[in-house]
Amino acid sequence: MYSEIVSHRSTAAELAARRPKAIILSGGPKSVYAEGAPTIDPAVYELGVPILGICYGAQLLATGLGGEVARTGSGEYGRTALHRAPGGGGRLLDEWPATGEVWMSHADSIVAVPTGFAVTASTDEVAVAAFESAERGCYGVQFHPEVVHTPLGQDLLKRFLHDICECRPTWTHVSVIESAVAQVRATVGDGRVVCALSGGVDSAVTAALVHKAVGDQLTCVFVDTGLLRAGEADQVEATFRRQFGLDLVHVKAADRFLAALAGVEDPEAKRRAIGELFVRVFEEVAADLGDAGFLAQGTLYPDVVESGTAHAATIKSHHNVGGLPEAMNLALVEPLRLLFKDEVRAVGEELGLPEEIVWRQPFPGPGLAVRIVGEVTAERVRILQAADAVVVEEIRRAGLARELWQAFAVLPAVRSVGVMGDERTYAYPIVVRAVTSEDAMTADWARLPYELLERLSARLINEVAGVNRVAYDITSKPPGTIEWE
Question: Is 80 exceeded by the pLDDT of residue 322?
């Protein structure tokens, strides 16, 4: 479906002018009773447009129409059993099983529904997990149908959009490409563009889209920060310069990035330092080219959300969003800014990019700097590069690379005591992180076979100098994040 994301501050008249067929009130981090919590124009409820409230949106819907929300002390996080009401699931959940699995993430709970509404589902902890009034065209669910960890979530969204709202699916990957290309051409005109190319799927698809739009006006810039995975710089050079024939500038800046990170431990400070230095390098290349006024980068919508907005909490400032300096000489071109990773991969396939690029596991723009918890040093980078190479090799050998969203090593900057060769050691631990996900907004820890974990532990300790302990992270997102910083 074609959709637009708009501010909760939009008036009912402004929404009506867009002629929506459906309105979805999203989740959010606030309590509906907190000072400054997002609210909507009450007249929105009278537009006659079907409304679906999700999590915070459901609580907002309930209180806005006369129901009640309270902090009951029974918050829910992660997988939860949803029980359809004995009298049926109403119009929205009528085809759901009596008990099914959903993904929850809330502290407040709906304790009373508005007059005229029916409770259609509950959980063991909360009495109101779904409610609706088909007559008013208003539906609310406390759980998150938009995440892959709610198995029937897509069915619920289709039920709401297709059957209740009578929307039609016209937003295709081809139309996304056409729209992005037209937007880039309108923005750039006959100007010259430098593209931040890391070798990952986001920057590769961005480069392909911008090249499709402006052709030879594009120069790709690969910055070797010294914080990449082992052998990655050579791989990017071989793939994009030799295989695709792109105009590629390779900047070797490892010393500059390590110098910028010296003594820096706070993860937000790391991201800001890296983001600013990236931009300065791109500005230098643009100045050398003489006429480049635009910087294309592979910003995705999760980057924007997690970096914080005027009305969304900052989870972590992505170097290409919250980490950007206030003063820049280049105007941004971000054709993927409203897309999620799964959509980007589909666009990449439509553009003809090779499988090894489209399905490459995500890698953070700040690189290994945010997988070293603490100060980044040359020694710690060396240890983590060697450890990460072992993890990647074993995951591929086990045939799990396509099944996992990400699998990597983390190096906390602490040391632990161990015994190796009957002698005391005082070395770093390595934390192995592997998760499954569809869009990176939520993720579950991967149930790796014990035999694989055993091989990883043995190889990391035996082969990586400076490591004497291995741990496996079994935290989902939420409450954790995929990366440690």
Answer: no
pLDDT tens digits, residue range 188-205?
A: 999 999 998 887 889 889
Domain coverage including residue 148? 12-164
Dihedral angle, C-alpha 354, 356, 358, 360, nearest 10 °: -170
Tally of domains within the chain: 3
- d(Cα 8, Cα 38) in Å, to the nearest integer? 7
Query: What's the gap between Cα 110 and its chain centre?
Result: 28
- By the 8 A CB rule, do 466 and 426 touch? no
At residue 106, the 3 state secondary structure works out as strand
Instruction: Specify the range with the lowest mean pLDDT, choosing from 123-127, 351-355, 393-397.
Output: 351-355
Find all residues with CB under 8 Å of 364, minimum gap 6, and list them.
370, 371, 483
Confidence tier at 325 by pLDDT (50, 70, 90): low
Prediction pTM value? 0.66
Q: In 10 A of CB 445, how many CB atoms?
A: 17
C-alpha distances in Å from residue 103, one per residue of 127, 243, 464: 16, 43, 38
Neighbouring CB atoms inside 10 A of 245's CB total 8
Query: Residue 179, Cβ neighbours under 10 Å: how many?
Result: 14
* DSSP label at residue 163: I
pLDDT in tens, 213-259: 999 899 999 999 999 988 888 888 877 777 677 788 999 999 999 99
Last residue of a domain, one of 122, 147, 164: 164
pLDDT digits (tens, 9 = 90+) for 419-439: 777 678 889 999 999 999 877
Give the separation between CA 323 and CA 346, rounded to whole angstroms. Answer: 28
156 shares its domain with 228: no
DSSP 10-47: --HHHHHHT--S-EEE---SS-TTSTT-----GGGGGS
Active site residues: 55, 144, 146
